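Encode chain A's predicted structure.
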Amino acid sequence: MFPQRTMLRSSQRFAAQLRSPAVRTPFQRRFASSESSAFHGAEDNAFNRERQAVKDHAAATSDLWRKLSIYVTIPALLIAGANAYVLWNEHWAHWEHMEPLEERPEYPYQNIRTKNFYWGDGDKTAFWNDKVNYHKKSE
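Encoded structure for chain A:
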């Protein structure tokens, strides 16, 4: 017939088989206990109850941080990345409308050289970028 309908019927049959008593664990508790402690007898003391409370708190806290990491951090990083991409493209679109590097004025506080750098031609810093940096040596 239709593959979707066949799949639905088989999944319903499988779920019904899982709910059958034969599949359940043989040590299933039949009634809810009236006491809240999982400890009985000599095990039921303040130390064990506090330790169990710490374990329960740790489980809940780790679950909270797992959910925060998945559902808050990842979308925030994606949004921040998209924002950075848009700003990067706007920045270089702005640079296309500016005059060429050779025609821009060079002020006295720019490119101060008291001695040459020991790499390359001695004029370029370690972070020199030819697309944005220019040094007029003649002036």
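Helices lie at 3-19, 46-96.
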